[in-house]
From TrEMBL:
Pfam family, one: ACT_AHAS_ss
GO BP, sorted A to Z: isoleucine biosynthetic process; L-valine biosynthetic process
Superkingdom of origin organism: Bacteria
CDD domains per UniProt: ACT_AHAS
Protein family membership: Belongs to the acetolactate synthase small subunit family.
Alphabetic keyword roster: Amino-acid biosynthesis, Branched-chain amino acid biosynthesis, Transferase
Name of this protein: Acetolactate synthase small subunit
Description of how the protein assembles with itself and partners: Dimer of large and small chains.
Species the sequence originates in: Desulfocicer vacuolatum DSM 3385
Its EC number(s): 2.2.1.6
Length: 161
């Protein structure tokens, strides 16, 4: 069977070791977590963990069943479908000598990014959006010289009706 990209999100008890048990489950099944992001929710007793991974459908189904059995998992959802809001955040530091800044600022504006730090020879920007748009911006910034990059990993929520 061919591997497919999956996105899952779960509400878990905000307790030590929960993330380790979940990631251990993935490692034990022999496949990689591409991105993982977790943080407390509006309820400080719960956290939301969002994971993107690649697996064949059978492996993924088995993994979902095992995650559901973990005692600290309150709710688990497959967010692979289109009825979810999915976003990622990136901080990008790019070489920006004064004579090239206008070009870079045009790109920043076109991607609705925001300059968050200005150095003598660099600019650091923040961009939020779909992962493929961040990839496109990075490709356009590559000729300038990307010095540093930090990405949050995927975040996802179901759309409210």
């Amino acid at each position: 069977m061919e591997e497919k990209k999956y996105v899952i999100t779960m509400l878990v008890e905000n307790e030590p070791g929960v993330t380790a048990r979940i990631t251990g489950l993935f490692a034990g099944r022999g496949y990689n977590i591409e991105t993982i992001c977790g943080a407390p929710t509006a309820n400080p007793k719960m956290s939301r963990i969002t994971i993107s991974t690649r697996a064949d459908p059978h492996q993924f189904s088995q993994c979902m069943k095992q995650i559901e059995r973990l005692t600290n998992v309150i709710k688990l959802r497959d967010m692979t479908g289109k009825d979810a809001v999915k976003r990622e955040l990136a901080l990008i530091c790019v070489k920006a000598p004064p004579e090239r800044r206008t070009e870079i600022l045009r790109l920043v504006e076109a991607f609705h990014a925001k300059i968050v730090d200005i150095g003598r020879e660099s600019l650091t920007m923040e961009v939020t959006g779909k992962a493929f748009l961040i990839d496109e911006l990075l490709a356009l910034l590559a000729p300038f010289g990307v010095q540093k990059l930090s990405r949050s990993g995927l975040l996802a929520l179901y759309r409210e009706s």
